[in-house]
Amino acid sequence: MRLHSKSNLLLTLQKKKFRTDIPEGELLLALMIYSKVVIQYFFTPLFITCFARDNPRFQTFITRYSTRIHSLKS
Asked: What is the pTM of this model?
């Protein structure tokens, strides 16, 4: 799955009339969890820091699901 899939997912959500106010960081994280390959290449501490710095909800999300994320990476 490539990162441009993020826009395709947003379009799909809009077409199906789901809520589209999903924060970009959380949407990207969901895509990353969905694809182990993406996690292996992009889910690095630096990447997490870039998103979490200005997004307290993302920090909470990372804290809550870090165990699950690390189990997917291995």
From this structure: 0.24
